[in-house]
Amino acid sequence: MSIQSQELISMAISAQKTRQFYAAYPENPKAYPEEANQQGLEAFQKTLNQDFTELAENAHSQRVGSEISPYMQVGLGVRYASYSAEDLIKYAQEAAPAWKKTTADQRAAVLVDSLNRISTRFFEIAYATMHTTGQSFVMSFQASGPHANDRALEVVSLAWEELSRFATELDWIKPMGKFDLKIRKTFQAIPRGIGLVIGCSTFPTWNTVPGLYANLMAGNPVIVKPHPKAILPIAIVVAEIQKALQAAGLPANLVQLAPDTLENPITKQLAEHPAVKCIDYTGGSAFGDYIEELKGKTTFTEKAGVNSVILDSVKDADPVFGNIAFSACLYSGQMCTAPQNIFVPENGINTANGPLTFEEVVERISGAVKGLVENPKMGPFTLGAIQNEMTVNRVDAAKKGARVALDSIPVVHPEFPDARMKSPVVMVTEAANTTLWKQECFGPALVVVKTKSNAESLELAAKAAEELGAITCLCYSTDHSFATEVAEQMNAAFTPVSFNFTGAAFVNQHAAFSDFHVTGGNPSGNAGFTNPEYVNKRFVWVGNRYAE
Amino acid sequence: MSIQSQELISMAISAQKTRQFYAAYPENPKAYPEEANQQGLEAFQKTLNQDFTELAENAHSQRVGSEISPYMQVGLGVRYASYSAEDLIKYAQEAAPAWKKTTADQRAAVLVDSLNRISTRFFEIAYATMHTTGQSFVMSFQASGPHANDRALEVVSLAWEELSRFATELDWIKPMGKFDLKIRKTFQAIPRGIGLVIGCSTFPTWNTVPGLYANLMAGNPVIVKPHPKAILPIAIVVAEIQKALQAAGLPANLVQLAPDTLENPITKQLAEHPAVKCIDYTGGSAFGDYIEELKGKTTFTEKAGVNSVILDSVKDADPVFGNIAFSACLYSGQMCTAPQNIFVPENGINTANGPLTFEEVVERISGAVKGLVENPKMGPFTLGAIQNEMTVNRVDAAKKGARVALDSIPVVHPEFPDARMKSPVVMVTEAANTTLWKQECFGPALVVVKTKSNAESLELAAKAAEELGAITCLCYSTDHSFATEVAEQMNAAFTPVSFNFTGAAFVNQHAAFSDFHVTGGNPSGNAGFTNPEYVNKRFVWVGNRYAE
Known about the structure:
Chain A is of the alpha/beta class.
């Protein structure tokens, strides 16, 4: 392991244990060379309407590519070499033995090298992310660049720690009375086999690199199956990992990109192949359930969930409604961590400046959303664009089942007049109307659910988390004993709670080296970034014994 | 945590990391007070033909008990309070909150206390084990007493380490340029829910306590469902854990015994209950597969497998055949670690004193088994008794499909003339006769399989491990490069290999704090004592965040 990677990894291990703030890759674009932004934009523009040839290519018959910019509503025209599932498996198997022989130190060194290479392309990856996912530039930069790299480094460090935790070679000496029994023992973490990592259309690198790097640390070759509509960001990442592998004299095919199309998907062929042993998946619940139920596979899923806000009592109302509005508007609610249902008691809530009725709460939430959305300096850049037309339709359909307190407001992006935009709709409903709020309405939608009391709010939120899954919960309460109850009940449904967030603290944000992302305990997914299970289920400890 | 438990656990953690020999509970009966053996025998005798009333009893309508001594062929007459699945779940749920609140330190202290209490009853547990499983006295003492306690302590220490690995409370401070974002965070390992531990008839405590203690450390209440024919040993263990819990002011129902009968089994009702979240199982593959496929459960299984001996070349032949014979005779092959198939090339094997033909190898193996079995000081005490009549029938049926080189030899136990005994049958077959050797023949049976070469021996052994599972593999080879190949191929099938074992080193023995038992990577089971996964899949990390 090179000095630099050694140092990075030991800092990462320490951050992860103490769960303190740590950023190996600064999230502020200004921390990078001044010309980097312009160069990144140009590099992105050069890839458009071209064959993407940066990947180590194997023999292939065709190219695919159907990405469309949500900002420009035009195709990117980038074409990627495509392969059959059988060929991808074959290449992975050919590459595997060389990687299996490497030590945890060697793997970590190669992978940290890859992260450093990727960091030189953060701006290009940001533009690629922006024009496939619809994220704003800042979010694209942060989520797909430094935050993704930090999550990957977190996985590398945790896996390094796991792989190094037992003695690998020793003399075991057992006193037998008259003599000693002496046995030489060796212990090795054997990679499980090929890892398949299935990406999503909204966070093409952030949600992909943890499984990708965890598999590589475990010694598993990886096939990355991106979402057909968000390939370019992860294609650049895969290319840089391949370069780091090759620079270390290792086969590029240890990580392969497996692009496909919506018309001819190859995900199931890959997932069901007996040589594929580990599967990471981010996306809808139906396909996620299918993945989890495949026999003989170790799976890591992040699926749908319904995130709640429990509104009980607040000190100062404005910062609270502002915070909720921002969390709902950020990337137009297209985040697995975005709040959806806001449970408010029918008698309203208390504030330091007197009570607010239920209707006043609804008005204030709507007003906060409206204020943010209509602010020309904030609105378009917070909302970003809608990745998929279906998200617009989903929200429009939901509206029919509720009273609409705030409808979507037309927003025009100053730079991209054709951007597909839709500001959050604020709906209001009775708790009994479960068809509306007891399902994920992924996208720009908030549902204010009227409850009998804060106790019912908690009961409904906890039950929804248990039955439908939840990745986050936001609670506002100045009542210590109620807050304690919320923590207990929601945690029992394996859902983390953020209390009284205002200002720059947002429920949507899960920081590497500190916040676990998805607990793995409720239906929103069976795995979490990055707990020990996330890495140590990808390899198997095997010991051999040698008599003297 | 008391000083003693603190010390024990830190020694256990260190042993586990270095994988050196460590025994918290001496395996030699002579290390215990002189009168202990006699007292243990008397205590055992006193329980016979009685209601077993040592457990904290809840309201119940009936008692069950149908254990039969394989040594005496008479019923033990011990009757245990029996409960419906619903009642067991209810009691577990009532007890759960008090345990959930305890810290890892408190749990470890209570559980170490329980192990110390159990250690005062090792002799009684030994007689209970002997007269339910058919194990010899020495094996009963070691396996159900000190070795089981060591495995339990190993689990406690690993779980303690896992539960202590992250900061539990901290201020997370992120520099934001003009200000610092400060968030208070707490992290907690939330217990998954009720643990069900399903025991087997041959190792009623050794195979049960790891899952039992792992669940308790994770904070899960446990229901122990023993095999109907081997209840007493684990009933004593459960009673002692209950006493340790009660001494600490905790509910006894955190661990409950759930005895049933072969006629009215309750295992499926318990396993399928939605409140049961973790299931440990030791036993046959068909039921194990059913357990693994249950939805929404975290499962830990040890199922059937086919263990191989790869015989290539040896220095001195006699100690090798003696070692194989002992491993096959020990508890009449009723160990999941016992060798079954011995792959021998048709051209025979090399020894330092010249070659041995295939037929000579068969003769020498048969001779070694015969010599051991017929030695009146060794035979009966190595063989023990056959737990289940079906084991005798299984071996008799297998014999019809093979050439029998050595048939079972009548052995009479000097103390127990009615003991159900059967010495190992040595069968010989061609590799093509897969119906004989490509299935587990649990019990006293060895199959010498004739192969074309040592390469074919390895190929068949590796394939069998991959397809049918294997817990151990024994290899004899003086050829370093072949041995390396064996390690590589068998390890790739997630099977550990023991090389050139003679003398006091036996493939059957897996030592706590050093050998993993079952890798979890092949069909012989999906979990291993005791790797990190074994404990950290039983709880879920959840973090809460508090804004300032």
